[in-house]
Amino acid sequence: MPERWRSLGKLLLLAAGLVAAGALLRQMGGVPGTGWVDRELRNEGLWGELVFVLVGAALTAAGVPRQSIAFLGGYGFGTLLGTGLGLAAQMLGCAASYAWARLLGRGWAERRMQGRFGHRLRPLRDALRQSPFEATLALRLLPVGNNLALNLLGGMAGLAAGPFLAASAIGYLPQTVIFALLGKGIRVEGAWQLALGVGLFVVSAAIGLVLLRRHRAGQALQSEN
């Protein structure tokens, strides 16, 4: 089976899982964290928004999936504002973990590159160093991977903050919108929000796959030359 069909099958499977998760959450009538949003944040105006961003940033920096922050943003503040607040929290968390790794973790990382994990980390580190913006953007758009691990690897590899954070912000945006839509859809039982979120999920993941393939093709061409 051609690789593109396998990739399409994986995307459709992920989309189906997202639909099933949305249906299950609606039946449950509650999601972890939504009670806190209801009690403490939704009607608190600017203060509630600030608390959400700061708590979301701390959770993102500690490794909590960034999609859950976007989901709670959409649930608590609606699609548009929830997307903005969720993205702000994600970027603060990303910058914090990246800065920690760059300032304190580079020596540790170089030792690991020479040890048992080097064969796994070195190719990704080299790809990020060669094309920090393009590689980071492609990886952020994919629906798989570990956000915190990429933040730490970017810092440990000594990537310039500008390209890394800019690509992260652009790459974060599609899934942030998607999960904010899902959060809003859960709260107001909006089927169209759930459907739109799933559709955007597939599109953004497909774009990430295309960018990753182009990046790999470019690397292969350079190695041949």
From TrEMBL:
List, alphabetically, the InterPro entries matched: TMEM64, VTT_dom
Membrane topology of the entry? Multi-pass membrane protein
Q: Which UniProt keywords apply?
A: Cell membrane, Membrane, Transmembrane, Transmembrane helix
Which residue ranges traverse the bilayer?
A: 46-64, 148-172, 192-212
Give any Pfam family that matches. Answer: VTT_dom
Family the entry assigns: Belongs to the TVP38/TMEM64 family.
Its main subcellular localisation, reduced to a broad class, is membrane
Taxonomy, top ranks, is:
Bacteria, Pseudomonadati, Pseudomonadota, Alphaproteobacteria, Acetobacterales
Descriptive protein name: TVP38/TMEM64 family membrane protein
Please indicate if the UniProt record lists Cell membrane as a keyword: yes
Query: Where does this protein reside within or beyond the cell?
Result: Cell membrane
Domain of life assignment? Bacteria
Ranges for domain VTT come to 64-184
